[in-house]
Amino acid sequence: MTKFFYMKILGLFLVVLGFSYSMTSFYNFYDYIFGTVTIANSNIFVMGIGLIFPLYTFIFGIYFYFYTDKEFAYINPFILASGIAMVIIGIIRIFVNNGIMQFIHGSYSYVLLVLGILLIYGCMRYKY
Questions:
Q1: Which of 50, 103, 109, 118 is deepest in the core (most CB within 10 A)?
Q2: How many alpha carbons fall within 13 Å on the CB side of residue 17?
Q3: CB 67: neighbour CB atoms within 10 A?
Q4: CA distances from 49 to 45, 73, 80, 128 (A)
């Protein structure tokens, strides 16, 4: 029972936080495109790639919420790799504030760090 509750709550957090940070990132991106905000030495294509990270969190949260209620006897490598990638991207975002990471909100890095650690913990503890 705890396994399914943990998975569903974590999946719900991934969906809600991924959606909210996607909206924040796209809002900042559109502000830049329409000229409200100016950023020196910026490349719109490179910074647009940074919008993929919050969007991936949202899409992965939907996948995680609906997919992980199956019984597994082994750790799913996709979920484990996504947790590790979230931790790495969170750490990179903490230290890098230009280029690809320009439109991502600063608090998103800490959220990614916590969600990635929770995913890795769930993979090790509950084998999903």
A1: 103
A2: 22
A3: 15
A4: 7, 36, 23, 29
Residue that has been written with the tokens 């990614």 in this structure: 112
d(CA 116, CA 114): 5
Q: What is the CA radius of gyration of the chain?
A: 16
Is the confidence at residue 97, as pLDDT, over 80? no
- pTM of the predicted model as reported, rounded to 2 decimal places: 0.86
Structure tokens belonging to residue 44: 């719109």
Q: What is the pLDDT of residue 57?
A: 93
pLDDT digits (tens, 9 = 90+) for 36-52: 777 766 777 777 787 88
Residue 71 Rama label (left phi>0; alpha psi -120 to 50; beta): beta
